[in-house]
Amino acid sequence: MSSVERRLTDALRQGAGEGVSPDLFDRVRLSIAEDRARRRRRALLITAWTITAGLVSSAVLLLTPRRDGVYLMDWWILELGTNLVLIALALWLGPFIKRFGRAYAADVFHDNPQTGKSYIVLTDIVYYLIFIAYILFTVNFAPPIGEWGPYVGADQLEWEAARVGGILLIIGVLHGLNIVLMPVLGRLFSVNRKLSGR
Q1: Residue range 25-60, pLDDT digits in tens
Q2: Are 78 and 157 in contact (CB under 8 A)?
Q3: Longest Cα separation, the chain
Q4: Which of 91, 133, 147, 152 could lock onto 73 through a cystine, CB 3.0 to 4.6 A?
Q5: Burial label, 84 (beta-carbon count in 10 A; 0-12, 13-18, 19+)
C-alpha cells in the first residue's frame, strides 16, 4: 500500500469513527419546518394574487357599460391595467431572478464573494431602472389621435400586448447577456485580484 493510499484510508476511518453530529436531528427538523413555512407563504401569496386578480376583473366587467351585448370599456381602463401588470411583473420577476442568481454569482465570484454581492445589487438597480424607464416611455395619457377610439379596440389590445411582450423580451435578452458575461467578469476580477497580490 502506497503512502497516499494509507493516508486516504486513515482519513476515511477517522471520519467514519466520529459518528453523527449531536445537533443533526435538530437541524433537519428546523429545515423541514422552514420548508413548510416557505410553502405556506407561497400558497398564501398565490391565493392572494388570484383573488385580487379575480376581484379586479369582476369589478371591471361589472362596471363596464354594454351596448347590444358588446363591452364599451374606456381606453384608459386597459391602459391602467397594463401598467399594473407591468409593475406586478417587475415586483415578481426581480426577486425571482435574484433568488436564483445568488448561487450563480457565488460560483462565478468565488475568489471574491463581496464583489459578487455588489454585482447582484448593481444588477438589481439596473433591472428596476429598465422597468421604470420602459413603463414611462410607453405609457399613454391620451389615446393616440386617429388610432384608438374612446373605447378599447383591437388596435389598443395589440399595443398593450406588445408592451408586455416587449418588456419580457428586453429583460430576457439582458438576463441572457448577463448570464454569458458574468463568468467573463468573474474571471477578469479573479485575475486582477491575483495580479495585485491580494
Answers
A1: 788 888 889 989 999 998 998 898 889 888 887 887
A2: yes
A3: 93
A4: 152
A5: exposed
Please tell me the pTM assigned to this model.
Answer: 0.67
Q: Is 77 exposed, middle or buried (0-12, 13-18, 19+ CB in 10 A)?
A: middle
Q: In which residue are the cell numbers 428596476 written? A: 128
pLDDT in tens, 84-115: 999 988 888 888 888 888 888 888 888 778 88
Residue that the C-alpha cell 437541524 belongs to? 27
The better pLDDT of the pair 123, 23 is held by 123
> Hey, which bits of the chain come out as E strands?
66-67, 70-71
Q: What are the angstrom distances between the C-alpha of 47 and each of 39, 42, 51, 53, 81? A: 12, 9, 6, 10, 20
Radius of gyration of the chain (CA): 27
Distant-in-sequence, close-in-space partners of 147: CB < 8 Å, separation ≥ 6: 155
Residues 6 or more apart whose Cβ sits within 8 Å of residue 117 = 105
Closest by CA to 79, choosing from 149, 157, 133, 166, is 157
- What gap in Å lies between CA 8 and CA 51, rounded to an integer? 60
pLDDT of residue 1: 67
Is the sign of the CA dihedral 97, 88, 85, 61 positive or negative? positive
Taking each continuous run of H as one helix and of E as one strand, the counts in the chain are 5, 2
Q: Check residue 47 and give its pLDDT.
A: 92
